[in-house]
Sequence to fold (219 residues):
Amino acid sequence: MGGMHVPNSPSRTVTHLDLHRLQRKRKRVLAVGTLVGLVLLSVTDSAWRLQWQQVHSTIQWCGLMLILICILGRTWVTVYIGGLKKRALVTKGPYSVVRNPLYFFTLLGAAGIGALFGSLTLVAVSTGFATVVFLSVLRQEEQFLMVAFPREFPEYVARVPRLLPRPSVWKDADHLIVQPQLVRRTFLDASLFLMAVPLAELIDLAQNAQLLPILLRLP
Fold:
């Protein structure tokens, strides 16, 4: 979402605190969903592996590419928002084509994690779960932005889509004020998606060694 500056009035302060509380709740839901997903993945295998090994491998490689795009994309977005966060509504660069580019790239990462297991069904499930969580949060975040920017935000909403980019409306920034520490932190946080790569390999090895049962095969 765009950067938001919240003045020190009582109503805006409450809004700011509610926003942080909402985002903490989002992180908890994602963490719980991830743990449940790992349990299910440990007893699930790709149906492509048995007869269509090439398809299985192609899906896995696509998953790795999506995760790399997620990491680089989130880092790129932070370059645009870093110097303006908490001071203005950011509407240039990636924010000019989609209102929530950080969430968009995170969805690509979620799809990539599902693809690492060689299953298109898992791609749909992981992406769908992340989308549902983000949409539930986005509606409330947009209410906060409407309060903070009552004139600018409605026009921004009318022009720029929420989650699916519209490249034709791209508008670049005249200049950028980059915060290297924020960019570095975002890159390191996003790089956690790469942990899914060795995890998928470990689950695969454990299943091949019959240490984990395969209860379900998904295409």
